[in-house]
Structure formats: C-alpha cells, structure tokens
Amino acid sequence: MKAKIIVMPKKTVLDPQGKTVKHALESMHFKGIKDVRIGKFMEIELEDGDRAALEKQIDEACHQLLSNPVIEDYTFEISR
Amino acid sequence: MRFGIIRFPGSNCDQDCYHVLANVFGQPTHYVWHKDTSLGDADCIVIPGGFSYGDYLRTGAIARFSPAMKAVADHAKAGGLVIGICNGFQILCEAHLLPGALIRNRSLKFICEHVQLRVETTDSPFTNACKKGQILRIPIAHGEGCYFAEPAIIKQLQREDRILVRYVHNPNGSVDNIAGICNEGRNVFGLMPHPERASEKILGSEDGRLIFESILKSAVNV
User: What is the CATH number of domain A2-79?
Assistant: First the structure.
C-alpha cells in the first residue's frame, strides 16, 4: 500500500516562493492566475495492513515529523 | 562555567563556538555528539549553526529527534541554560523548546552580512551584560531566518518581555522584526545572528562578546 501526503504552508504563513512563481507565470502571459502556493508531496510505501491502523500511524507521522503544525497543514490518502 | 556544544552531522559553527568559549573566554568547553545521551557536566548548552542533517525536510526537523536533544530538553526543563544560534534556533523551535518557526527569507535569498540588533531587554541570562536599547553589530548567515508565529504567540512574547533582540532593519521578513527570543523560564534563548562570529576585534566586531559575557555574569549571580 502507499500513502500520498501533501504538506502545504498555512494560509497565514508567507509563501514567497509561491508569490515569485505567480509573478513568473504572469510575466509568461498566463491569464487569470489568482494565487500560487507551493508545498511538498511525499509518497510512503507501506506493508499491507489494517487501513484504520495505517491511517492512524501516518497521521501521527505527519503531525510529529513530516509537517510542522506551526507553519504547515497536511492531508494524505492511503491507496493500493 | 562549563559549556557543552552539540554537534550534529552538518553542524559547521561548532568549532567557532568552541574557539570563542575555550580560547577567547577561557571556559572549560566540550563537544557533545548528537548520539550522546549525556551532556557531561555542562552548565550551558550551545546548539551551533550549520545545516544539521542537510536541512532535509525542514531546517532542524531531523536534529530534533536525536538522543542529545532529549538530554537538552531535560537540561532545559531543569532550568539549565541553552543557547541556539542560527540552525540551533531552528532546532529549538522544531523541538518545541521555543515557540514559532523559522521559514524561508522573504527575499528567497541566503543572506550573509552584518546587521544591527537592538537589545530589547536585559532581563535574561543572555543579555544582562548589555544596556537596554543597545545596538549590537553581529553577522547573520541564513536562508531560513524569517521568524513566524501566530499573532497570539507574538502578543504573548511581547507581553512577557521574551523578545530579547530585534533587527533594526529587518533583513528577512521576520514578524515584529524578531531576531531572538527566550522561553517562559528565560533559560532557553534562540537567535539567528552569530555572536561567535563577532567576538574578536580581528573579525570586525566584538559586540557578540556581550552575549557570552551575559551568560558568564549570570553564573556569578546565581
């Protein structure tokens, strides 16, 4: 099984990288871009097991290490 | 006063700190490897600058889980002094020994230059040899030095007089111009600037000495 994790800077946190990329896209004449925010995507390969137990484990991993709750939010999904 | 300097893979200001404490100030100083579970007989722990664990994931995120950091947390809880410089500040935030986090500089650039710091309070073991409002000229060298915390935390830091130093000219986008803060017990201090790089005349500034002199002075007062 596989966990796919997305970690994003919180809305209240400055994202100068996203802002810079937004300006670059605009200067390339891409239209209608309202906002760009840049985060991280992670994949974790897991041994097969009880889905609820795996979810609990990944949630803990996200909270303790993979994200910093002070500045980031995370979401994840577990799939085959 | 006995100093212990934590070394992680990727620390690179450890020898500068050692030189200043051992050779400039003549204090008994030893290194603590990140895998050590004991800090030896250190009264004050220094977490030096650098790129612990290559800054992988987030600055300080991996270092926080090393055995030595568990010992540092116990040391801090018992009231022992801890100073985290640059990457050390980032590690202390990740370890929740200090609130908030350090994120990418607003300019996205790594900044290496002397800056002016204003000492905001002398009520701490790290600034008690300074004068309130005194301007210190000390270098910064970081890509992730923009201090961030939620407004409620910033208000608490202000109310409790825990912002020890502010930038006179904000170089990195830090909230409220914060360059260094202490914990509630005032025994843990994190700052982005490098006082160890400004402790000898030959290096262009000796203002950083005041931080170390404060620490030594606090030992005498105890």
Answer: 3.30.1280.10
